[in-house]
Amino acid sequence: MTQNTYKNYLPWSEAHEEFCYQHHIPPTAKSLWQWLMRQGEIGSEIEPDLSEFNTWVEKVRGKKYAHNYLKHIFEILVSSRVLQVINGT
Asked: Is the pTM for the entire model greater than 0.85?
């Protein structure tokens, strides 16, 4: 096996699915959440690059999302308390 198995492991559970339904998380936001989970450890700070997500989306979906739409999707995850934005000094 040549791929990193840690990166392939996604701790996505039934509870995550239920949360998405209860909080009306759209499929694109769910995909972004899952992608972010693969970028680092849960509970750790990361600085996500939405253009990297969009590059991955283009490979899988065939076309990218509009920048403003991605910002909107990111805000959905923040307002749902899935993500927490930390402003550095």
From this structure: no
